[in-house]
Design a protein that fits this description.
Blueprint (H helix, E strand, L loop, with lengths): L10 H67 L17
Length: 94
């Protein structure tokens, strides 16, 4: 709700409030539409930025997590002790 004009159980007062509400909508409607549009655009832009940030964090976690696991396996198996380039695996996840 943007504005409350009033309320009443009296039919004449309800009619007067109705006309007052219509007049208010006519005089301020365009300005409110523009403000609401700008607000919605700003909200959508913020949501897109936040979504991109969250997805970037997830991507970084996946890459770093995989790298940590593979490094442990590499060392546990003993590949880090091999000096022959034929058996050394250079893993790049980027």
């Amino acid at each position: 709700m943007l504005k409350s004009i009033g309320s009443s159980s009296n039919p004449d007062e309800v009619e007067r409030l109705y006309r007052q509400g219509q007049a208010w909508i006519r005089s301020y409607g365009g300005q409110l539409d523009l403000l609401l549009l700008l607000e919605a655009e700003q909200h959508a832009r913020h949501e897109m930025e936040e979504t991109a940030r969250v997805l970037s964090n997830i991507n970084n976690i996946l890459i770093n997590g995989i790298q940590l696991i593979l490094n442990r396996v590499f060392h546990c198996v003993g590949f880090d002790k091999i000096n022959d380039d034929k058996y050394v695996i250079n893993i790049s996840l980027y």
